[in-house]
Specification:
525 residues; alpha/beta; 5-stranded parallel β-sheet; 16% strand
Length: 525
């Protein structure tokens, strides 16, 4: 198992699993382009960079029996620079950043034989790097930069520092433009494409492949790749969990698949980190590995420090964005929330139309829960559901303990930060309710349709199918009327009756605006 190993040569030499992406690697490496790839954390960007490093540094040494072996015919010898800017993203201010960037460049050049000795007196690492480039011959250098935006995202909420870091990075990238002729290949990865970072104005010939359909699965695993490369793990995991292989694959798809990064919405991939963690310890079940590791990137955390992440009323709405808004570099002080959520993996492209409109949604159950947890952290003032005595909702639903389920829901609602997230109507009430459910691990959906109408919220927990109809009362005299209205609606429109294989639990709940919680409810027979 290759969990956490992003060193391509090490994977190959130790015989670990490598999902063969070298056909796509070849399509990029055969050109002399300068390429950018934007993807969320934990999607294998570092492994991809390491693959290019091995190819240009050692030729086909590590590529036996991979697709590129029969395609690659470049016998050139290159000076390969592999820079990881995550190594310089923790700094106190712009002066500290400048020092750390300079030290990093000098250490890297010394360790890799591009510099004889590090000067003992203070010096500018970018200038020494630039002077070295000036000595290289045409078409002789390969530059690979992982997490190019790491320093920028780490200071996003500090505008003055951001601008100074931006200028320093622009100085670094300007030398690539100045000596563009020496580069055989340039490849950058990141999470966010910053338009005012100075990078893309300096490298105006950059080819951004982030939304290109051809490279939609260059990072992440397709379902077919999961079946081909992880067959023994699928078999063993199914035995461990006492389910069929078909059921196991279905659960993998529901929990970890569904990411789409290309504008035609035709290629879906799994999050590698989540899949590898599951196969590493299947006894833990289908846990939320996304939020535990890659699901809290600094660019998003920096953003939510200064912004309300989401309006509860808009939490479950289908969202749209123009394709050009994703492909166009954005300004640091005008980040588009939807674009940011796509780039960090919280939203994904579900479908597209001929007018260039992309329709966005949560890719899978794991990310829906992660989004709920992220939003709940804001709604609850930094507290968790457990800290507000609402942490065992899933268990109460499994045992059909309606009374205590209502109590836990009310504990959550009474803890909401009403100064910033006011529950003002039925739509915002539904959105907040869905957040609490999904944050509890319930795979719930809004608006399940039948021939007669659409229910508010439906979900299944173990052998029970739940239908919940929510009503919003502004005045006390409306409460009983709203409850009766909900009961008639659920019965008259036969909500949930299509799920005959499960025990049907139908619940009508009335939220009273003045008291900020659900004051009346009824369980239907």
């Amino acid at each position: 198992m290759s969990l956490g190993d992003s060193d391509f040569s090490n994977l190959r030499q130790k015989g670990k699993i490598y999902v063969d992406k070298t056909g796509l690697v070849y399509k990029l490496a055969k050109s002399d382009n300068k390429i950018l790839l934007i993807r969320p954390r934990r999607f294998g960007k570092s492994l991809l960079v390491s693959t290019f490093y091995s190819l240009f540094k050692f030729g086909l040494r590590d590529f036996s029996n991979l697709e590129i072996e029969r395609l690659w015919n470049d016998d050139g010898t290159y000076a390969v620079l592999y820079l990881d800017f995550s190594q310089v993203k923790n700094f106190d201010d712009s002066v500290d950043f400048e020092h750390k960037l300079s030290s990093y460049l000098l250490r890297y050049m010394k360790l890799n034989g591009f510099l004889n000795e590090i000067p003992t007196t203070p010096c500018n690492g970018i200038e020494i790097f630039t002077d070295w480039l000036a000595t290289q011959s045409n078409n002789s250098v390969v530059l690979l930069v992982d997490e190019y935006d790491g320093p920028l995202t780490s200071c996003l909420s500090h505008l003055d520092t951001f601008q100074k870091v931006r200028k320093k990075l622009a100085t670094f990238y300007s030398c690539i433009k100045r000596y563009s002729g020496i580069f055989r290949f340039v490849f950058l990865t990141g999470i966010t494409k910053f338009g005012n970072a100075g990078i893309f104005s300096e490298l105006n010939s950059f080819d951004d492949i982030s939304l290109v359909q051809e490279f939609g699965d260059i990072a992440g695993y397709t379902l077919e790749e999961i079946k081909v490369y992880f067959g023994p793990y699928i078999k063993q995991s199914a035995i461990t969990l006492n389910i069929t292989e078909h059921e196991l694959i279905h659960e993998l798809v529901d929990n970890y698949n569904g990411f789409c990064f290309e504008e035609t919405a035709s290629k879906k991939v799994f999050a590698p980190w989540s899949v590898l963690n599951f196969f590493n310890r299947p006894t833990r079940g289908f846990r939320n590995y996304w939020f535990e590791s890659g699901g809290q990137p600094s660019v998003l955390l920096e953003y939510v420090q200064e912004h309300a992440l989401i309006d509860p009323a808009k939490y479950a709405e289908e969202k749209t964005i123009v394709a050009t808004e994703l492909s166009t570099a954005v300004s640091s002080n005008k980040l588009d929330e939807k674009a940011l959520l796509v780039q960090t993996g919280y939203l994904t492209i579900k479908r597209s139309d001929q007018d260039g409109i992309l329709y966005l949604g949560y890719p899978n159950r794991e990310v829906a829960k992660s989004m709920a947890l992220l939003c709940l952290g804001r709604l609850l003032g930094g507290k968790t559901l457990s800290q507000v005595d609402a942490g065992d909702i899933l268990r109460l639903l499994a045992t059909r303990d309606v009374d205590n389920f209502i109590k836990r829901i009310n504990n959550a609602f009474l803890s909401l930060d009403f100064s910033r997230y006011f529950i003002k109507d039925e739509m915002s009430c539904e959105g907040a309710f869905l957040m609490v459910l999904q944050g509890s691990g319930v795979s719930a959906k809004l608006e399940t349709h039948n021939a007669l109408g659409k229910s508010d919220i439906e979900f299944s927990v173990e052998d029970s199918h739940w239908v919940i109809e929510l009503k919003f009362a502004r005045r006390e005299e409306q409460i009983s009327k709203k409850l009766l209205e909900g009961i008639e609606q659920v019965k008259g429109r036969h909500y949930g009756e299509q799920c005959q294989e499960n025990n049907l639990m139908r619940l009508v709940m009335v939220f009273y605006e003045k008291e900020r919680h659900f004051v009346k409810y009824a369980v239907l027979d």
